[in-house]
Amino acid sequence: MTRLNNLDSELAQELGDFPEDDLDIVFTPKECRTLQPSMPEDGVELDSHVRDCVQTYIREWLIVNRKNQGNSDTCSLKNKGSRKDFHKTLQKQTFESETLDSADANFQAGPRHVHALPEEASRTTLASSDFDLRSLQPDPRLENLLRHVSAEEFERQNEEARRTNRHAELLALYPSVDEEDAVEIRPVPDRPKEHLGNRILVKLQTLKFDIEIEPLFACIALYDIKERKKISENFHCDLNPDSLRGFLRSHTPSIDLSTQARSAVFSVTYPSSDIYLVIKIEKVLQQGEIGDCAEPYMVLKESEAGKTKEKIEKLKAQAESFCQRLGKYRMPFAWIPISLTNFFNISTLERETPEAEGLNGKGSTSDKRATLLQARRLSERSLSSEDSYPASNFKTTSLTLSTFFKQEGDRLSDEDLFKFLADFKRSSSLQRRIKTLPGTLKLEISPAPENLGYCLTPELLPVKPFPENRNRPHKEILEFPIREVYVPHTIYRNLLYVYPQRLNFANRPASARNITIKIQFMCGEDPSCAMPVIFGKSSGPEFVQEIYTAITYHNKSPDFYEEVKIRLPAKLTEKHHLLFTFYHISCQPKQGASVETLLGYSWLPILLNDRLQTGHYCLPVALDKLPFHYSIHSPEKVPSQTPPIKWVEGHKGVFNVEVQAVSSVHTQDNHLEKFFTLCHSLESQVTFPIRLMDQKITEATLEHELKLSIICLNSSRLEPLVLFLHLVLDKLFQLAVQPMVIAGQTANFSQFAFESVVAIVNSLHNSKDLSKDQHGRNCLLASYVYYVFRLPDPQREVVKPGAGSSAILTESRYYTFGRTSAVSVGSKLLQSRVISCSNPDIAVTQSATDEEVKNIMSSKPMDPSSSRMSFCVEGTNDMPSVCASPRPSNKKHFHEELALQMVVSTGMVRESVFKYAWFFFELLIKSMAQYVHNIEKQDNPRRSRFSDRFKDDITTIVSVVTSEIAALLVKPQKENEQAEKINISLAFFLYDLLSLMDRGFVFNLIKHYCNQLSNKLNSLSTLISMRLEFLRILCSHEHYLNLNLFFMTSASAPASPSPSLSSQNSSSCSSFQDQKIAGMFDLSAEYRQQHFLTGLLFTELAAALDADSEGIGKVQRKAVSAILSLLSSHDLDPRCSKKEVKIKIAALYLPLVGIILDSLPQLHDFTISDARSGKGRTGNPEEEQESAGAINQNVALAIAGNQFSLRSSGISLVSLPYRQSATLGPDTTRNLLICFLWIMKNADQNLIQKWIADLPSMQLNRILDLLFICVSCFEYKGKQSSDKVSTQALQKSRDVKARLEEALLRGEGARGEMMKRCRTPAGNDRSAGLNENLRWRKEQTHWRQANERQDKTKAELDQEALISGNLATEANLIILDMQENIIQASFAAECRDNLLGGVLKVLVNSLGCDQSTTYLTHCFATLRALIAKFGDFLFEEEVEQCADLCQRVLHHCSSSIDITRTQACATLYLLMRYSFSSTSNFARVKMQVTMSLASLVGKSPEFNEEFLRRSLRTILAYAEEDADMQATPFPIQVEELLCNLNSILSDTVKMREFQEDPEMLMDLMYRIAKGYQTSPDLRLTWLQNMAEKHTKRKCYTEAAMCLVHAAALVAEYLSMLEDRNYLPVGSVSFQVIGATQFF
């Protein structure tokens, strides 16, 4: 960079100089849903595992950002997205096709009032028609048309006009490249966040029965009856009026606001039609069975007066006394189920569940395009749960229920509930079998809003936003998903749920009947040790010390349905336990007797061998007071005591209880538990032996056990492994680099840790339950690397007792693997891999390989100051001391250790490393970026940032991965997909290395990759495809231009180097020799050397276009798409907006022009598929299909010897006689052509002119042919078939159709034959090709396009039409610029004979297309300049072109748009004027104009005679105002001509009257033809018109007679002119054919 000339270095700065430090380390705070992050309670010293967990959950994300990411090419699509208002800056282009459709629809439809001539008026009487024409008002004339201006000045003015109001960014108007090709998009992974399912908000509004006598309490939860599982925790709600709530005042010391919630947010991850919301209602305990207590509710009504009222008052008084005495005890009362089927999209659940699973961990990657779209959304997805899961898009629903089911005292368990619900779902018979209670329950169910204000989490933490002025909060209810949810923990959560289920006191004394259990969480054995960690119910304190279960009256073996939710302390000890105390409750007050009678105790220690105890337990119940230290044993295994403990039923288990934990601290998995415990025993001071589960581990066995636990990590269940994934990987990476000395011995865990990581990566990728992005990367791992991974903490030496100095030991540890040179190790691995793949084409020795590498690298070093191949050849030194390692000897760097482990891995580990190389590559990059950031090496040269050993390892890794790709590609198709993914991973790796390492070194790796791949692959299309994707990713680098534009590679480059091809500008062009300029458009060796990446890309494109192997079409599309996306990114890059920069960038792409010109015969010819007649849109496709088998009009006319026919399919490309069929598809061709136009637009125009001037005429003709195709390619297709709408659906249907065609073509029989014929049109006849193709190539017909765009809104269609119109205008203006360049160059070179015809062809073709007024204005200006400059040549040589030109110009004279008419009139007048000036008589032009008009009115459906009359009047005005011509017969001749034209127009009025009557129309046409007996040329034209009309109606005999008549007419005139033997003797010869009287 230091040795550039001044101009280049200035522009290098413009483009954002390639910075030394390209990557930025950013610490981003985690988004926290709650006001404060969830944390353990204060004042407790945490053990190291809990501390690590909490630290992982609250620490910031560490993200490696690219400093210039905003300008990056990878952002091109994002940029395009951010420019959604871009269309507002565009000017609306006016197209006649659209004005005809809208403004003039009524004008077209009705019969027109025209000044028609009386039929008896003679055609030769001039006066009447003259008067008729003169009575009209002429259009405004062009001011300067008749002014004398030199041709040069005229051209200069035209050019100035064309340069104004042009779009700087052509490709901003072009539809974006198909995303399937956009491999360079690396989706930003989702931020790890707390999992939320479909969230529904349930608000309870009313709960009351017909009589209100006592407080009632609701408890709500969700149940899935298919899975037979409770899927949410309980939500307790109190809807009692204050009067009834007052009954319990003595039992509620305080009421916290959080317990007054009446609305809850439930979350459902796996919705189904089997989910029920169950509301259970409890009341205060009173004497009597549930049925007895419920009876008043069934028979009494509040509204009844008299005795009923007295009863109710009595009941109320009873209830109040029960409440005061037994207020803290509850009894079951009623319940009501609500199906949630209508609140999820059940109809689409089958389709949506996989999507839910995909985002939640599950999903498949079969549909690449769908995955791409998902990847597109990855970075845009917000925290909204609606975005992530099947939308709960139901409307808010209010429900009012009036029937409650009475609870059955002996059927209270969850099992019974599931039976009831199953019956309820099947039929309503449940109501007949269970007693019901009348009542009212009103509730509202709605989708939970994204930001629900005033909401509490399951831990009662306030969620943002949390306003202060609300009275009742909403509560989030924790979900218990039916299946695993694979989302790593990101918040601290530590909850325990206790479910007492059943108690069997059947054999107890009679006193045990009304049984309740008091449940407490104890931190010791003293009664005062009960901890206030139990979540309270409704209308009470938030946390309580004890909770009582509901009581079933007089039942010795009750079932319970209680759920006790406990906030577990962060630090658990063996003293923590659950205490269950069993009581009998006396419902009737007895003198002196207490309400509670103690029945017994049971307990459950929370920890067993330092692990949280969860699961189902059947515990014995002790009758007496428990002995000291009972809690350290489980009740089943209490040692014998003195005195002995009395047990119910002799120590049998009589109490069933279930304990479940929802914790992000306790792993509940043996393998993980062991691993974490052993890791912490290394990190903190512990006393040996340590207890682990049921084994004791001494210091001597610690190393062995830890290695074993590392190996076994992958055996843990997938769910806990995923839940603790971040912590597990952090610990393993810490072990990989942490120096360990245990009992005086160096412990070396690196290899084991690495292999364990590999195994975990393998498991996660292989799990069908976890989702992947479009590059096949596991989403969990991708987000771990992107957000969570950071270099392990600065290593502190961990020395366990008995260790001496460990510095030497750790250094020697690094070479444990007997490290020879990394290169030689790599090459051995490489050879072994090659041998194992039985690939016989590599049988080279290591030295030969090195030699080859040396030759490759030294022949074209990338940077004169970095020709560094020596490390590859000389790096075989075994002595570590030689390596200039920048680190202290006792320190290991993570990136070095990781690279080494990748190199030396073997067997299955090695296979997995390279199969999932992306993960290890991204780890390497992130660790290297942090390393560079930490040691502040940004200012140092890149070359010395990393050790040579590390570079050796990187070289080896790239080499091995490349050979792995090659080996997979020769295997079956499934392996090919794997190879593609590895290939993309490798490309991204090198892309990232360009920002971190010496670029010369990275370029060497790229070159090595390309050579290695081409040596090993036989299939050309596969090879090109692989290298294309690889290069496309590299070229998307944000500093791609600097990597190419200013990379001086010649070792002998002088201090002021000869300008590179890209540094040409207008001032320096003149000093170049001609061949130098021509060479700039060739892909030369010098170019490839100087512009390395672009050179490689162009080489692949050229190879793809030259190739002819199977499946090459897709590769060609990929190649063109890669270059188009690059050019698009330059157009969208704000750094490239300056004109000088654009000129240099365009110069970089000049060789592409040569490649496109060489591929001209392969381009899809749009003139075939656009079968145009006059304006372009002839009849509908049905008509075209019907006429497919008819006599071809062009052929008939050719037989008749007519050369002035209006071409229905454009003008054939004279210089391409060899074209048989297009090998490139229309999309690929269009993309290639837009690239060509982009270069022509942005390149230095002086350079282009010089290049054109030096080209041989054959090359110039090729350019004109290319421009001809461009005109048809970028024709405006109208609103309904806008170019911009290249929808994915359209692409997909094309792909399917292409596959169908391939299948049919390969097949035999009639179908195969038919397809082959359709693919190759016979001969060169374009319209024949069209007719045959039409049946299969339906995408080229208009109905198809309109069909596929019905789903677009009008605004979208308008916007697309606006952009499409601007694209068509800009593309055609670039084509016009090129034609001007060619005209000027050919004029200077005196070779106009060859070229003018070609230029005219292109211009005439463009006039035949649907063009905007902007373009037509400039096009007519160019035409006028051409007439002025080459008039004589035009009228003498290009007769046929002149006829076509007259036809097109006259057509535009009938335009409804004033500007177009004005321009066309001026051009037509000038054409006549110059024709007269060159020959003093413009008979030929007169004849051509007359015939054109006759042809026009006879054929064109869009023709408008009123506007044409006005144009004729304008031309007459020009003739009258032309002072220079007044002295000549010219004005009179013009007047004659115009009157003749006017009379023809008058005839058309009559024709229009009989438009619906074909017989009368033909008769009239015949009479009109007969009326032109004095004008044979017109008569001939009318006969041809008649023939065409007959053919359209399939009246082939009549058509033939018209043509015979025409032939006879021509023969008669020929015999009058010259008598030749080979000519027929006038019309007499034709009397044999038809008995018609000709004259």
What labels would you give this structure?
1639 residues, 12-stranded mixed sheet, 61 helices, disordered N terminus
What this model shows, in words?
- This protein has 1639 residues and is α+β, with helices and mostly antiparallel strands.
- Helix content is 47%, strand content 11%.
- Strands 3, 4, 5, 6, 7, 8, 9, 10, 11, 12, 13 and 14 form a twelve-stranded mixed sheet that branches. A four-stranded antiparallel sheet has the order 20-15-26-25, with no helix packed on it. A four-stranded antiparallel sheet has the order 19-16-21-22, with no helix packed on it.
- A hairpin with a 2-residue loop joins strand 29 (740-742) and strand 30 (745-747).
- Helix 60 (1576-1592) packs antiparallel against helix 61 (1596-1617).
- It is elongated, with a radius of gyration of 44 Å.
- The two termini are 87 Å apart.
- The N terminus is likely disordered.
Envelope shape = elongated
Q: Biggest sheet, open or closed, and with what strands and sense?
A: 12 strands, mixed
From the alpha carbons, calculate the radius of gyration and give it in angstroms: 44 Å
Class based on secondary structure composition and strand pairing: alpha+beta
Low-confidence parts: 1-5, 71-82, 103-131, 347-391, 801-889, 1046-1073, 1170-1222, 1281-1290, 1302-1350
Q: Tell me the total number of β-strands.
A: 31
- Percentage of residues assigned to helices: 40-55%
How large is the share of residues in beta strands?
5-15%
Give the averaged pLDDT, no decimals.
76
How large is the count of helical segments?
A: 61
- In whole angstroms, how far apart are the ends? 87 Å
